[in-house]
Amino acid sequence: xxxxxxxxxxxxxxxxxxxxxxxxxxxxxxxxxxxxxxxxxxxxxxxxxxxxxxxxxxxxxxxxxxxxxxxxxxxxxxxxxxxxxxxxxxxxxxxxxxxxxxxxxxxxxxxxxxxxxxxxxxxxxxxxxxxxxxxxxxxxxxxxxxxxxxxxxxxxxxxxxxxxxxxxxxxxxxxxxxxxxxxxxxxxxxxxxxxxxxxxxxxxxxxxxxxxxxxxxxxxxxxxxxxxxxxxxxxxxxxxxxxxxxxxxxxxxxxxxxxxxxxxxxxxxxxxxxxxxxxxxxxxxxxxxxxxxxxxxxxxxxxxxxxxxxxxxxxxxxxxxx
Length: 322
Ligand SMILES: Nc1ncnc2c1ncn2[C@@H]1O[C@H](COP(=O)(O)OP(=O)(O)OP(=O)(O)O)[C@@H](O)[C@H]1O
Prior knowledge:
This protein is α/β, with parallel strands linked by helices. It has a domain at 240-310: Alpha-Beta Plaits, CATH 3.30.70.100. Helices cover 37% and strands 30% of the residues. The strands form three sheets. Strands 6-7-8-3-9-10 form a six-stranded mixed β-sheet. Bound molecules: adenosine-5'-triphosphate. The site of adenosine-5'-triphosphate has 12 residues, from strand 1, strand 2 and helix 1. Keywords: ATP-binding, Nucleotide-binding, Transport. This is ABC-2 type transport system ATP-binding protein. Residues 13-246 form the ABC transporter domain. It comes from Mobilisporobacter senegalensis. GO terms for molecular function: ATP binding; ATP hydrolysis activity.
């Protein structure tokens, strides 16, 4: 089991110019404690800048924490990072971490060599991995000719080349179409539930988190603000309603008026103006109110419909409640 207790990370950055430079301390992670059990998928969520990447870098031993305790199956991971590196791997979304000029086999062979895996074991493992990710027959094809989905399947194989006990998945489905994303989620489930790997997942897709995660940690401004199973968190926040309202010829005045009226009905309402319209996250159902407001004010509605809960709004709401 992975146990991290009170992890902290402070970056030291230079600010200013010439003789006036001085060092500034940025506390990216202030206090984070979490656990990852084998066979479980744990979600790490938070808005941009919450500290997810810094936390993952500490857990994968790429960064040493400023303070805190981190053990992996009772091994002191801060003292013995090499021991930890053997047992983990990371799969990131967005076609990184593979060499396009090399063939699929050469990629896996290269990464396998980095882990000093004996040639005969590596060869057999690579064969199994091509089978697992459905790339059999493509071993000797250069990766640059692969589709996005095939590259991502190869990323999974690369992430499994050292047969890790714990896997860190950083936005693994980013940029993938629905079919490939679904396939990848099935792989992730299989790895946790059939192969007993402990998995940490970051994702901005709510559906993915809901489908996969046994447990979720929510980060905000370098600290944990909430934790629990999907159901526990859903009871707290996911019951909120989300709407998309698109009004013809929206002006700032219209938006200001809308915000004032909605806040008077529900002070916890969150309103975001985006390219596709106004996103409204409210405690209770608001569809009637929204159409009534528009009618009374003489605003013409282009679109108004209820949406699936959005992770950003959920996290914003929890952050406001802290
Ligand atoms: N190398 C660095 N030097 C200085 N500050 C940093 C460094 N890396 C991150 N930070 C700061 O630490 C904070 C947390 O950043 P981090 O990248 O961990 O967040 P995140 O949750 O992964 O965000 P995102 O979703 O945007 O990737 C931010 O304020 C960021 O600006």
